[in-house]
Specification:
Blueprint lengths: L2 H19 L3 H35 L3 H11 L9 H16 L6 H17 L5 H26 L3 H14 L4 H13 L3 H13 L5 H14 L6 H11 L4 H13 L3 H14 L4 H13 L3 H14 L4 H20 L3 H21 L3 H18 L1
Helix pairs in contact: 1-2, 2-3, 2-4, 3-4, 4-5, 4-6, 5-6, 5-7, 6-7, 7-8, 8-9, 9-10, 10-11, 10-12, 11-12, 12-13, 12-14, 13-14, 14-15, 15-16, 16-17, 17-18
C-alpha cells in the first residue's frame, strides 16, 4: 500500500471516529489541517526528488529509469521552471539516441529542445547555461556525422532527417544546408532542394551548384520564370567561366523570345570580364538563334582564338558556316558560298580531331564528305 492511500485511510478513520465519539469541531479542524499539510508537503517534495532520482539513474547508466523520472519533473509546476530539470532531460534523451542502432531524430530533436529550454530558463547564465550550449554543439557534431555516414551508405532518408536536425541546431551553418541539398536531390525531393538552395543564397553562400539547381528548378521543375533573369545574370557575374550557367542564360533568352535583350546584357558583362571565352560562346549561340549567322561566326572564331582546343565552338562554326554557305548558294552567290564551305570544312576537320565521341565523329565525317563534293 502507498503512503498516499495510507494517509487517505487515516482521514477516513478519523472522520468515522468523529461521528462515533462526538469530538469537538475545533479539534477536528486542527487535526485535519495537520494531516493534509503532511500530505501536501510529501507531494511537493516528490517532484524535486524525481529530478534527483533521474540524475542518479543517469550517472549509473540506467537511462530508461532516468527517463521515466525526468518526464514528470518536466510537467510539475515547480521543477519545470528549473534549468537543471531540462538540462538533464537533454542529457538523458541525447544518451538514449546515441544508444540506438538506427538514427532516432525524434530523440535528438527532443534533446535539442530541452537544451534550448535550459538556456531560455537560465537567465542568470549559470553553469547550466554554459553546459547546455556545449551540449548543443556536441549534438550538432553527432547529428552531422551520423548524417554523413548515412549519406555515404546511400541511406538518404535517414541522412536528410539528420541534416535537418543539425540545421535546426545551427541554422546559419552553410555546410549543413549544402549537404542537405545534395541529399534532397538524391531523393528527388525538389521542394526541399529548392528550400535549401534558396536558404544558401539568402546566406550569401550561393556556389555554382546552388545557382544551377535553382535555375533548373525555376525553369523546368517548378517554373518561376519571373525569378530567372535576375538570378542567371547574378550567376554569370559570379561564375563567368561556367558553361552550364551560360547555357541556362542562352536557354532562358531563347525560350522567352528575348534574344536581343540577352545579347545586350551579355555584351555588357563581357566588357567587365575581359571577353571571357564562355561569354563569347554564349553570344555566338544567341546570334545563331537570332539567325545572324555572320555575327555568330565572328564570335565562334573569337572563342577559338582564346581557346584553340574547344570542341563545341569548332563544331558549331562548321555547321553555321555550312548553313550560311547554303543560303548564299540559294541566292546564286556562289563565290561567298564557296568561302563559307571552305570555312566549314576547316572547322569540321578541327572538330573531328577534337572529338572523343563516336557519334559526333560520324556526323562530322558525313559533313566533311558533303563539303568536299560542294567545293569541287
Amino acid at each position: 500500500m502507498s503512503k498516499h492511500s495510507t494517509q487517505y485511510n487515516l482521514i477516513n478513520s478519523f472522520l468515522n471516529l468523529v461521528v462515533a465519539t462526538f469530538i469537538p469541531t475545533r479539534f477536528v479542524t486542527y487535526l485535519l489541517k495537520v494531516i493534509l499539510t503532511s500530505m501536501l508537503t510529501h507531494h511537493s517534495a516528490a517532484q524535486p526528488a524525481a529530478v534527483t532520482n533521474a540524475i542518479l539513474y543517469f550517472r549509473n547508466g540506467e537511462i530508461d529509469k532516468a527517463y521515466k523520472e525526468i518526464l514528470p519533473a518536466c510537467e510539475n509546476e515547480k521543477t519545470k521552471q528549473l534549468p537543471k530539470t531540462w538540462y538533464y532531460k537533454g542529457l538523458i534523451t541525447f544518451e538514449m539516441a546515441k544508444r540506438k542502432s538506427e538514427p532516432d531524430t525524434i530523440l535528438l530533436n527532443t534533446s535539442h529542445d530541452a537544451f534550448v529550454k535550459t538556456i531560455q530558463l537560465d537567465k542568470n547564465k549559470t553553469e547550466y547555461f554554459t553546459l547546455a550550449n556545449q551540449k548543443l554543439h556536441e549534438l550538432w557534431v553527432h547529428s552531422f556525422n551520423q548524417a554523413g555516414e548515412n549519406f555515404n551508405k546511400k541511406k538518404y532518408e535517414h541522412a536528410l532527417a539528420l541534416f535537418e536536425t543539425a540545421h535546426q541546431i545551427k541554422t546559419n551553418d552553410t555546410t549543413t544546408l549544402l549537404y542537405a541539398a545534395y541529399t534532397a536531390e538524391a531523393l528527388k525531393d525538389f521542394d526541399k532542394l529548392l528550400q535549401y538552395c534558396e536558404n544558401l543564397l539568402h546566406l550569401r553562400a550561393g556556389n555554382e551548384y546552388v545557382y544551377l539547381k535553382l535555375l533548373y528548378i525555376y525553369m523546368h521543375q517548378k517554373p518561376q520564370i519571373h525569378k530567372v533573369e535576375k538570378l542567371v545574370l547574378q550567376a554569370v557575374d559570379a561564375y563567368p567561366e561556367n558553361p552550364y550557367i551560360l547555357q541556362m542564360l542562352t536557354e532562358y533568352y531563347i525560350s522567352q523570345k528575348e534574344v536581343p535583350i540577352g545579347i545586350e546584357k551579355l555584351q555588357q558583362i563581357s566588357k567587365t570580364k575581359n571577353n571571357n571565352h564562355e561569354i563569347l560562346l554564349a553570344l555566338a549561340l544567341l546570334h545563331d538563334a537570332n539567325n545572324d549567322k555572320a555575327e555568330a561566326i565572328k564570335y565562334y572564331q573569337e572563342v577559338l582564338n582564346k581557346k584553340t582546343d574547344y570542341y563545341l565552338p569548332a563544331y558549331n562554326l562548321s555547321v553555321t558556316s555550312f548553313n550560311l554557305g547554303k543560303q548564299y548558294a540559294q541566292n546564286s552567290n556562289y563565290e561567298e558560298a564557296k568561302k563559307m564551305y571552305l570555312l566549314s570544312l576547316t572547322y569540321a576537320q578541327k572538330a573531328l580531331n577534337l572529338s572523343k565521341v563516336e557519334s559526333e565523329k560520324e556526323t562530322l565525317l558525313t559533313l566533311i564528305s558533303e563539303l568536299e563534293k560542294l567545293i569541287k
